[in-house]
Write a structure and sequence with these properties.
163 residues, alpha+beta, 3-stranded antiparallel beta sheet, two-stranded antiparallel ribbon, 23% helix
């Protein structure tokens, strides 16, 4: 959080507070959302996970979003995603970025090996190779988390420290 300087509170909602902030590194003005995690015994709410997934690789446009994803994960190729050539917007002239050194584990150094394995399966470009939501919930990463009534998870499990 030292990277960002809060300028003013923009709004507040059920899940958090939004601030106008300045990135101290780039000077860019951004919206910064502080998410409430009040029900810690219930785990992280799915709404919070969705919100978090947006700030990780948020682009200013669709093409910028894709460029940021490609820079992070590497540009997809027909070798890793054969059907990419059939997508309407596919171009062989896409900027070519290599996959991360050390694979996805290098992007999340505090995540344990089971978490890295799950993340790798979730971030497959090829939908046929991507893990389903049901199979993801059955992944060993979630071992030790007890299913509560209504299908919600509660209890222990893994955690990833944030900086």
């Amino acid at each position: 959080m030292e990277r960002y300087q809060k300028i003013e509170k923009i709004g507040e909602g059920t899940y958090g507070v939004v601030y106008k902030a300045k990135d101290r590194v780039t000077g860019e003005i951004i919206a910064l959302k502080k998410i409430r995690l009040e029900a810690e015994d219930e785990g992280i709410p799915s709404t919070a996970i969705r919100e978090i997934s947006f700030p990780l690789v948020a682009g200013t446009s669709e093409s910028d979003q894709l460029d940021r994803i490609f820079r992070l994960l590497g540009t997809p190729t027909p070798q890793v995603y054969p059907d990419i050539v059939n997508l309407p917007e596919f171009s062989p002239d896409l900027p070519q970025y290599p996959p991360p050194r050390g694979n996805i584990a290098s992007l999340v150094p505090k995540l344990d090996p089971q978490g890295v394995n799950l993340l790798e399966q979730m971030l497959q470009y090829d939908p046929g190779r991507r893990i389903s939501a049901q199979r993801a919930l059955e992944h060993p990463f979630f071992a030790g988390i007890n299913a509560a009534p209504g299908g919600h998870h509660s209890g222990g499990g893994h955690a990833m420290a944030t900086t």
